[in-house]
């Protein structure tokens, strides 16, 4: 029980750190993620320096096995808690229901698919990377919902509310496009623990598959002492690794449940260890499927840059689109730290390849002129770090006026809201006075596409001034002015 409680303590501390660092980003966890490092390296042929820390995770896994999955991974801890709660108050299932090893190979096929796609420059492992999956769900679903509940809850004392406002609540209630799909997927993965304990870790997690491969010859193993074991089977029902040395997560439930104390933690020769066998042909087929999917992504018009989606407006500092898609983890860090709630997970603006990558939605928020938080939060370098002075010179898009909706043009009424809010030192929106009415005009040389004019436009049902990706600094091919 001492080992079980030690594991629980480490899991609690790891999850607590993930949650406590959540408001300001959790870069350290992403830097410990070897899956993110490997797929980014394969797709972009470069990685952020901090991500090299994941080599330490791999080295310790080669020595000690899948310790990261069982003790550190915050999503693994969440599934462990749900799986444990599922079994409380009910008799253990038959061991055979918890030791179906054959289907556990599915996560290795998921890993092969992502690696196959990354070889063609398509890094989409963030779809199912456990750290990106959890942070994205927290940022776009759980935190906004919790924030809304706390704001609406009555009867909170002033000191408590002040503490929450200072340390937890957002300055303004966040809203995100696409959060319904993200929430459904997160809820579904939790519900699958009813089918099998830690269903995600056993069947779906590509990071777990990568660490399982690294741990196949690990020196530290949990094993049964055949001289003391009486084959009672009590160790099997609550085993988080399904009674397979290659899947062992070092939860030590078996040591707790064994009445004969026949479970030991020992050093074993690598040759004696049982290793996963997903099948060479199936792994190659999965990798080929990922490679083929990447080819399909590249045959999309947006993939070859034959056209640019007008709503595909990336945060300032974003790399050129090809490099951005090869580097972005789809984690949602930039979305969480944006103070105006202007960054959202993409739907199909960049094709399926760009699902859940960050895009600006100016009707919800805008790019604050004095802010560089998203450039500091990105763990992979898809959004490069910027100083404020440099950021203020970057154009992320270009505003244009819909004269059929603009009050001065369509109705002859003077309105200067867009010009008042324009943050550039020399206003990018100017006026031409026609018949006593001030009509706004955008100066393309000065507009940086921050979108505050769109956000503040008095016409909320389709603003009269809109920002498009045209003219963005990061993609010269999408330019407007020669």
Q: If you had to describe this structure to a student in words, what would you say it looks like?
A:
The structure is a single chain. This protein is mainly α and 482 residues long. It has two domains: 271 residues, no CATH class; 158 residues, no CATH class. 42% of the residues lie in helices and 7% in strands. It has 21 helices and eight strands. It has a two-stranded antiparallel ribbon. The protein has a two-stranded antiparallel sheet with strand order 3-4. Helix 1 crosses helix 6 and helix 7 crosses helix 14. 45% of the residues are buried.
Give the secondary structure arrangement, pairings included.
Blueprint: H1 2-21, H2 27-31, H3 34-44, H4 54-64, H5 67-72, H6 74-87, H7 106-118, H8 130-152, H9 158-167, H10 179-191, H11 199-204, H12 206-214, E1 220-224, H13 253-257, E2 263-267, H14 280-298, H15 321-327, H16 333-337, E3 343-345, E4 358-360, H17 373-377, H18 388-391, E5 398-401, H19 407-411, H20 417-421, E6 429-434, E7 437-442, H21 452-456, E8 465-468
Antiparallel strand pairs: 1-2, 3-4, 5-8, 6-7
What structural keywords apply?
482 residues; 2 domains; mainly alpha; two-stranded antiparallel sheet
Count of discrete alpha- or pi-helical segments spanning 4 or more residues: 21
Described by the principal axes of the CA atoms, the overall outline is elongated
Structural class: mainly alpha
Biggest beta sheet attributes: 2 strands, antiparallel
**Integer average pLDDT:** 87
Question: Any low-confidence stretches, pLDDT <50, length ≥5?
Answer: 88-92
Number of strands: 8
Task: Spell the H/E element sequence.
Answer: HHHHHHHHHHHHEHEHHHEEHHEHHEEHE
């Amino acid at each position: 029980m001492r080992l079980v409680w030690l594991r629980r303590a480490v899991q609690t501390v790891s999850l607590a750190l993930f949650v406590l660092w959540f408001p300001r980003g959790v870069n350290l966890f992403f830097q410990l993620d070897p899956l993110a490092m490997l797929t980014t390296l394969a797709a972009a042929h470069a990685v952020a320096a901090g991500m090299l820390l994941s080599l330490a995770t791999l080295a310790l896994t080669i020595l000690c096995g899948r310790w990261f999955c069982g003790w550190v991974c915050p999503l693994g801890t969440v599934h462990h808690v749900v799986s444990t709660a599922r079994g409380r108050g009910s008799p253990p299932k038959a061991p055979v229901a918890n030791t179906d090893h054959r289907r556990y190979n599915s996560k290795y096929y998921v890993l092969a698919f992502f690696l196959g796609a990354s070889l063609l420059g398509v890094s989409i492992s963030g779809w199912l990377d456990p750290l990106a999956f959890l942070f994205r769900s927290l940022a776009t679903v759980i935190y906004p919902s919790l924030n809304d509940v706390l704001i609406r809850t009555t009867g909170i004392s002033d000191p408590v509310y002040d503490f929450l406002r200072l340390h937890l609540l957002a300055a303004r209630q966040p809203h995100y496009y696409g959060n319904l799909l993200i929430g459904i997927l997160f809820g579904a993965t939790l519900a699958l623990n009813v089918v099998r304990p830690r269903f995600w870790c056993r069947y779906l997690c590509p990071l777990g598959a990568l660490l399982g491969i690294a741990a196949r010859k690990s020196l530290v193993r949990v094993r049964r002492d055949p001289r003391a074991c009486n084959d009672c089977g009590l160790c099997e029902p609550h085993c988080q690794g399904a009674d397979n040395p290659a899947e062992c997560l070092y939860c030590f439930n078996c040591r707790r449940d064994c009445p004969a104390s026949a479970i030991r933690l020992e050093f074993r020769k690598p040759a004696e260890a049982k290793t996963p066998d997903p099948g060479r042909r199936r792994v190659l087929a999965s990798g080929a499927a990922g490679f083929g999917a990447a080819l399909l992504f590249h045959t999309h018009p947006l993939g070859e840059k034959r056209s640019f989606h007008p709503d595909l407006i990336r945060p300032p500092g974003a790399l050129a689109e090809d490099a951005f898609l090869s580097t972005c983890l789809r984690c949602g860090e930039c979305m969480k730290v944006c103070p105006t709630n202007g960054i959202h997970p993409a739907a199909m603006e960049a094709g399926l390849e760009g699902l859940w990558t960050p895009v600006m939605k100016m009707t919800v928020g805008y790019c604050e002129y004095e802010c560089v938080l998203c450039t500091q939060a990105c763990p992979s370098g898809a959004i490069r770090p910027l100083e404020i002075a440099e950021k203020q010179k970057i154009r992320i898009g270009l505003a244009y006026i819909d004269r059929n909706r603009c009050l001065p043009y369509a109705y002859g009424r003077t309105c200067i809201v867009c010009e008042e809010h324009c943050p550039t030192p020399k206003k990018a929106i100017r006026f031409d006075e026609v018949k006593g009415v001030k009509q706004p005009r955008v100066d393309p040389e000065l507009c940086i596409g921050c979108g505050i004019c769109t956000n503040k436009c008095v016409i909320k049902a389709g603003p009269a001034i809109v920002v498009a990706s045209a003219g963005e600094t990061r993609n010269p091919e999408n330019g407007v002015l020669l």
